[in-house]
Amino acid sequence: MFANWSWRVAVLAVTLFIAAPAFAKDETVFEALGGAGDRQFNLNCDAGKYLVGMKGGQGAWVDRVGIICKPMGDRGVPWGPLNETEEWGGGGGGDYHKFCREGYFVGGYSVQLTADNKRVQVLRLYCMSNDEVNWPKYTMAAGSEAIGGRSFENYCPPGQIGSGLHGRSGKDVNSAALICRDVVVPAASPAPAPPRPPEKPIKSSHGAPGSNAAPGDPSGSWDMRNGNGEHYVLELSRNGGDVSGTIRDDQGAVSAVTGRFFAGGMLNLHYSLPGRSGEEVIFFKGDKISGADKASGTPWSGARLAGNAAEIPPAAPPLQFSVTANDDVDVYDGPDGSFHVIGVMERGAAAQQLDHREGWCKLAGVAEGRDGWVAEDHLTGCQ
Fold first, then answer.
1. Dihedral angle over CA of 243, 155, 24, 38, nearest 10
2. Cα–Cα distances in Å, from 95 out to 68, 87, 130, 281?
3. Which of the four pLDDT bands, split at 50, 70 and 90, describes residue 321?
4. Considering only 90-99, 274-283, 303-312, which range has the smallest mean pLDDT?
5. Which of 77, 54, 73 is nearest to 64 (CA)?
6. Does the pLDDT of residue 193 top 60, yes or no?
């Protein structure tokens, strides 16, 4: 499965690397910025295991930290029993114990320092999947989300995933950064197993009508729809790693777009339309695209249009199911309890359903006008 890693995980930000004799040649070690602390710590998963979580103590900042590891499974994701390390830092704060869902791994991190830049105020680990359909990362965080000092974010380079944390600590965690390691997938067990269904074939753009671009090339016209029911057409051209073009919505509003294209088919795209602007992460695979909004995680999908798009295709009608809350229930910004709570849907309140995923219902305007996700066992009418 890791043959396609080069486009599934890419470095999305400028990163700083440090080298030290304690780190192996197959590792990427990001610089731990922050306070000096009393001691250097270096938490590493054992050989053959990878980072899937963290534990320790937290309050107004991160008081202490340890890591949680899993062995690599033969299907290319960590799988099996958890293994926990010692913790570094002080004894304050309440305990936390957080790890990625089964089949996910840590592929990036961010750190927010306190206002004096001497402690880690919040440490976030990004859980990611080896399946681009589930790509929008979700975050587990330790510490406090209050406004602090400097912040920075990094992702493991292609072919590596998280394997540890390093930094400095004393009475608190003063600095922390991610360690990434080359992915090594063990050979499958020779024991007989039930046959697996064939993977869905990926359509190649070689010889596809209306396309002269090679697989993974963003040049051309693209029809895109997101999880909020919004619809756009992209017109893109590529010059090396630089991408430029336009984006057009259903109302005819047009904006210039710019982006950076990475080897393997990933594009960071910046745009600005009336009432909407941001950065999208888009994966190009043959004549298909998928991805997500970097800030909200709202998913995208779409396909190449033959030639230039003269007219925007009609948008698919949104779902019209009416959904009612059975009790007061939290609203999240993603389809899982690990996402952030953005509001409360009161008992008896009704809303229009926009989407449904694995026990979660996306509802229109339920969090002070924002769309959000609610667990379906608290709802009537979710389908």
1. 140
2. 14, 11, 30, 34
3. low
4. 303-312
5. 54
6. no
Find out whether 9 and 128 touch, Cβ atoms under 8 Å: yes
Over 70: is that where the pLDDT of 241 sits?
yes
One-letter amino acid at 344 equals V
CATH code of domain 220-305: 2.40.128.120
What number of other Cβ atoms are within 10 A of residue 103's Cβ? 17
**Fold classified for 322-380:** SH3 type barrels. (2.30.30)
Six-digit token pair at 131?
A: 């399946």
Q: pLDDT band for 213, please (50, 70, 90 cuts).
A: very low
pTM: 0.48
Asked if residue 258 lies in contact with residue 268, where contact means CB atoms within 8 angstroms, the answer is no
User: What residue ranges do the domains of the chain occupy?
Assistant: 2-182, 220-305, 322-380
* Secondary-structure class of domain 2-182 per CATH: mainly beta
Count of CA atoms in the C-beta half-sphere (13 A) of 32: 28
- For residues 330 and 335, what is the distance between their CA atoms, to the nearest angstrom? 12
Residue 314: what pLDDT? 47
Confidence of residue 29 (pLDDT cuts 50, 70, 90): very high
Cβ neighbours of 46 (radius 10 Å): 11
Token reading at 251: 């109302």
DSSP collapsed to 3 states, the chain: CHHHHHHHCCCCCCCCECCCCCCCCCEEEECCCECCCCEEEEEECCCCEEEEEEEEEECCCEEEEEEEEEEECCCCCECCCCEECCCEECCCCEEEEEECCCCEEEEEEEEEECCCCCCEEEEEEEEEECCHHHCCCEEEEEECCCCCCCEEEEECCCCEEEEEEEEEECCCEEEEEEEEEECCCCCCCCCCCCCCCCCCCCCCCCCCCCCCCCCCCCCEEEEEEECCCCEEEEEEEEECCEEEEEEEECCCCEEEEEEEEECCCEEEEEEEECCEEEEEEEEEECCEEEEEECCCCCEEEEEEECCCCCCCCCCCCCCCCEEEECCCEEEECCCCCCCCEEEEECCCCEEEEEEEECCEEEEEEEECCEEEEEEHHHEECCC
